[in-house]
């Protein structure tokens, strides 16, 4: 009795030598879902079974509930950086631009990459999960290559820009960010080339996506409740 709750494949395709193993594993699940459109397609192509696209499970917790969990930082008026891999040249240009033109402090969380360390005026901090959510919530702007930092920025209504991640294993996972941003009509927040000009004085997000968050949260709940009810009778 197994339910897949919004897993991510972490890639746009599955190597041919893994497909038979994956097909066998997928056959053991009563209900299938995936976090990105590409994941839904992979499941269908490999197993022949239909899957549903669900939002990241962190969305099940509301903005107010996350704020109760978060630790509010002492500082206000800052740009929050969180990069899981060394930032690409496009991201570095954006960081330098905000560092020199915004007049705000730049806080880099968790990782100290050499390329960021060379930029003047950046403060590096570590912290707990509570600090992480609180720093995102209270930031004026978030710059990141992290899927979950993108999702928390959306959930906490914080303006952000996401960048393609320079994956150490060489397999892009950008499809799950693309799917999420398309849901919220925020595809312009994904910066993939130098042609995407970032304006320091115009980074606010005017779109009200609270209704989308409610719909996505309800979609996850309905999927789980239906699956649990039907499995109970198996």
Overview of the structural elements:
The structure is a single chain. By secondary structure, the protein is α/β, with parallel strands linked by helices. Helix content is 41%, strand content 12%. Strands 5-4-3-6-7-8 form a 6-stranded parallel sheet, with helices on both faces. The longest helix is centred in the C-terminal third of the chain and has 23 residues, at 210-232. The termini are close together.
Our count of helices gives: 9
Which class do the helix and strand fractions yield?
alpha/beta
Q: Biggest sheet, strands in spatial order?
A: 5-4-3-6-7-8
Instruction: List how many beta strands DSSP finds.
Output: 8
**Distance separating the two termini:** 8 Å
Round the Cα radius of gyration to an integer and report it.
Answer: 19 Å
Low-confidence stretches: none
Oligomer: single chain
Molecular shape = globular
Q: Could you estimate the helical fraction of the residues in percent?
A: 40-55%
Instruction: Tell me, rounded to a whole number, the average pLDDT.
Output: 87
**How would a crystallographer describe the biggest sheet?**
6 strands, parallel
Order of helices and strands: HEHEHEHEHEHEHEHEH
Q: Hey, roughly how much beta strand do the residues contain?
A: 5-15%
Name the descriptors:
234 residues; alpha/beta; six-stranded parallel beta sheet; two-stranded parallel sheet; 12% strand; globular
């Amino acid at each position: 009795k197994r339910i897949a709750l919004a897993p991510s494949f972490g890639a746009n395709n599955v190597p041919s030598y893994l497909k038979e193993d994956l097909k066998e594993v997928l056959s053991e699940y009563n209900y299938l879902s995936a976090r990105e459109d590409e994941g839904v397609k992979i499941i269908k192509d490999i197993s022949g079974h239909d899957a549903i696209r669900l939002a990241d499970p962190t969305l099940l917790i509301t903005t107010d509930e996350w704020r109760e969990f978060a630790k509010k930082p002492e500082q206000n008026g800052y740009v929050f950086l969180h990069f899981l891999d060394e930032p690409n040249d496009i991201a570095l240009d954006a960081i330098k631009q905000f560092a020199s033109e915004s007049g705000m402090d730049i806080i880099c969380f968790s990782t100290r990459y050499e390329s960021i360390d060379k930029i003047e005026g950046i403060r590096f901090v570590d912290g707990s999960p509570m600090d992480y959510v609180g720093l995102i919530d209270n930031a004026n702007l978030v710059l990141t290559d992290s899927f979950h930092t993108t999702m928390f920025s959306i959930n906490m209504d914080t303006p952000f820009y996401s960048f393609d991640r320079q994956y150490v294993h060489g397999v892009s996972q950008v499809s799950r960010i693309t799917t999420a941003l398309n849901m919220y009509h925020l595809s312009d927040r994904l910066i993939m080339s130098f042609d995407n000009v970032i304006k320091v004085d115009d980074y606010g997000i005017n779109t009200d996506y609270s209704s989308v968050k409610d719909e996505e949260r309800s979609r996850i709940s309905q999927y789980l409740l239906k699956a649990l009810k039907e499995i109970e009778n198996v």
